[in-house]
Amino acid sequence: MSTAFEDSRKKSWEAVLLQAAYDISIPPSLYETINARYATLGAILNGADDPVLKSAHIFPQGSIRLKTAIKPLQDAKDDLGTVDADAVVWLENASTTSAEDVLTAIQKRFQDGKRVTADIEELRRGIRIKYADENPGFHIDVTPARNLKGNVEDCGKGALEVPDRKQGWKASSPIEYSDWLNNISEKTLPVMAMDSFRESTEIVSKASVENMPEYGEYVDPNVLRALIKLIKRTRDIWAQKNPSKKDYRPISAILTTLAGFAYEKLANNQTNIVIHNPFEVMQAVIETMPEFIKGTPGHWEVLNPVNKNENFAEKWNREDGENYQAAFFDWYSGAVTAFSIGLQEFSSNALFQEALNESFSIGPSTVDKTLRYLPQDWNLPGRELGKTGATVALATMSGQAVASNKPQSIQHSGRLG
């Protein structure tokens, strides 16, 4: 049976993690800039003469739509140093057009578009438009799409196909996938102590409201989205520390899907794990994620939950696929350790903050502003049991008192004049 100090250390650690998820979220100014770039790209499409591009509809997908976008790591290079803002261009008139012709039409239109001054890079399933002059920089991966045969929805809803330069048309369902994650993220775990959840989220709100009060939708303390942001941050740190392996790092779709499956299993009470607080949710999700990797070597699957024809782990089945799988489990072992840091016992707050920065690349301000709002009788995260805010404050006051009561040493200054 856990002690009161152990329980409060978990709650203080979860408060730090929720604050960290807030701090690594993209700032509202960048979100507004990205939105403005989407509008610009839409205006360019509206002026297209190519009949395939007529009535095109552009919409965000990926982390921006999922509300899990994070800031890039400081001093990171290449794509690790920019925010990934994906977009889909739904094409109403591409039902009989080849994948190659659609990709050519999209690339030509944006290269010719007068409003696009950013660099354009060719991707396997579209193009990448780089806005490196922004701070932080970001890029928009533009992927064209058309309805799958039988889908009568418009504006990108329902089952779609996206062009692939090597494999023709491939299945995708970005809007339904986003809806799936949003729906399960709002599920309440049946055995979670909701008083603890409200307590922790109120701490984050107090610590954050002064800086970005209008940014609630992206930085709300939803436990699943916060966890996904933190998981992606540990992935980026792993890639930065392993430059020779960074091209094999787990893609966000795999991390998000596995976390979503694990959370959904908990929410549906399909596990024997007992959950008492949001941190234990994060811990259980992390531990359960690998269960949802299916298949065998050469046939690995992490399927889109709303479209079984889309396999997010398809790279794992390529000729160099074992590198992708090895990178996932190498990252995973470090991530499990990272999420347990707050339950370890460091001899000082400085050492705890150093370990936190090593794992999540966040500065001491994250811990400091969280601790400011914690109850004084809660055990501090990353410290031995019994080390609370009150005991630290008392020790500080006692040390100051002892220092003030010490006799002053007076040295003779020698002759004057």
Report the sheet-strand fraction.
Answer: 5-15%
Q: What is the CA-CA span between the terminal residues?
A: 74 Å
Sheet of most strands: 8 strands, mixed
- Secondary-structure element order, N to C: HHEHEEHEEEEEHHHHHHEEHHHH
- List the quaternary state of the chains: single chain
* Overall tally of structural domains: 2
Helix/strand-derived category reads alpha+beta
Low-confidence stretches: 192-198, 203-219, 400-417
Question: What is the number of helical segments per DSSP (H or I, 4+ residues)?
Answer: 14
Describe the structure.
- A hairpin with a 2-residue loop joins strand 9 and strand 10.
- It is built from 14 helices and ten strands.
- Strands 1, 2, 3, 4, 5, 6, 7 and 8 form an eight-stranded mixed beta sheet that branches. Strands 9-10 form a two-stranded antiparallel sheet.
- The chain starts with a helix and ends in a 12-residue tail after the last helix.
- The protein has helices at 4-23, 28-46, 63-66, 99-112, 174-185, 194-208, 216-219, 223-241, 252-267, 278-288, 321-338, 349-360, 364-371, 389-405, and strands spanning 57-61, 83-84, 86-90, 119-123, 126-131, 138-147, 160-164, 168-172, 303-304, 307-311.
- With 417 residues, the chain is of the alpha+beta class.
- Helix 8 (223-241) crosses helix 11.
- The protein is globular, with a radius of gyration of 25 Å.
- The protein has two domains: 4-25 and 179-360, no CATH class; 28-172, Beta Polymerase, domain 2 (2-Layer Sandwich).
